[in-house]
Amino acid sequence: MHNIRKFLAFAIFGTLTTTGAFGQSPTGGTTFLDIISPQQELGITLSQNYEHQFSSDLKGGFNGDLAADVYTTGLDYANFWKQGFVRAGFGYEYSDWDWSGPTYLSDTQKLSLQTIGGYRFDQSDWGVFGLVGSSLGAETSGADLGDGYSYRFGFGGTYHWGQRSSFSLGIMLIGQTEYDLKVLPLPILNWQITDQLNLRTFNGFTLTYDVFGNNQTNVDFTTQYESDTFRLKNQTIRPGLTGDPIVNKDSVIIAAGVTQRFLKSLYVRAYVEGIVYREFEFRYSRNNYRTIKTDPGIAIGLQGGWNF
Question: What count of Cα atoms within 13 Å lies in the side-chain half-sphere of residue 58?
């Protein structure tokens, strides 16, 4: 049954990916950094990503190590017109956590939905943007997916220069289970440095280089912050107290990848990733009762996609 669930997650569901000229998600992830890349092609993109995270030791007095296999698939839609754009993506992620000691977190699943849009004022370098994102996460067995939620809402203004460069500044509201609402500044940069080199920032940055200038072969370098929330099954939190806590996973990654396009609509991307920081914070009734950190680790991944 365990292998069947892994196969279904790999074959049917997944996370958000990009559509368009580069046809790739820079880390196989679900963040807005993945979906604000410059686009030339429109339509729908279906993608599949597999990532293996090699074992890294636990810190802070916790014994053992942690490895993981992450299976992701995504469906994304993009539409552009003269003065605006809209992009929306739906995804699911299945993570198989392998603890060498006690199992603090069983296999998890996550649903996500991200939408971003913008409008440029007529005969002006200025415009506006808005974004909405949400996710549901939980252990695959014994936990309620709807109880592990997070959401984001942001808006602001945009300044455009040239044909493919812009800078946006606004605010973003972030809410998640067991945490207070956060309000943060929101800077977004999309800079076409040369015809072949692009830099974009959101929750990190991605530098993409079009090797031959025809969008067939691209190399990329990414660093970004990632955060996921999962509801856990009912368990003993401490003697005399049971409940269904949540875990919030925060990580900082650095990745480098190569993407090759085939027949204009197909692409394959291979990448290597360094997990330079990873922390699991376990909370119940808005109180932290356990924090687990790991040593830096390495991951490798392979992604394929089809634009139609």
Answer: 18
Q: 140: which 2 tokens? A: 């695959």
d(CA 144, CA 150): 14
Q: What is the CATH number of the domain that holds 144?
A: 2.40.160
Which pTM was predicted?
0.86
Cβ proximity of 91 and 74 under 8 Å: yes
- The tokens describing 3, both together, are 């292998």
- Among 73, 115, 96, which residue's Cα sits nearest to residue 306? 73
Separation of first and last alpha carbons in the chain = 34
Residue type, 73: T
Expressed as residue numbers, the domain containing 15 is 2-307
**What is the C-alpha separation between 228 and 3, in angstroms, rounded?**
24
Burial of 216 per CB tally in 10 Å (0-12, 13-18, 19+): middle
Residue type, 303: Q
Query: For 72-96, how does the pLDDT look when each residue is reduced to its tens digit (9 = 90+)?
Result: 999 988 888 888 889 888 899 999 9
Strands (DSSP E) contained in the chain are 43-57, 65-81, 84-99, 108-120, 126-139, 149-161, 165-176, 182-192, 197-201, 204-210, 217-231, 235-238, 241-243, 246-262, 266-284, 287-293, 297-307
- Structural domain count of the chain: 1
The helix/strand/coil state of 211 is coil
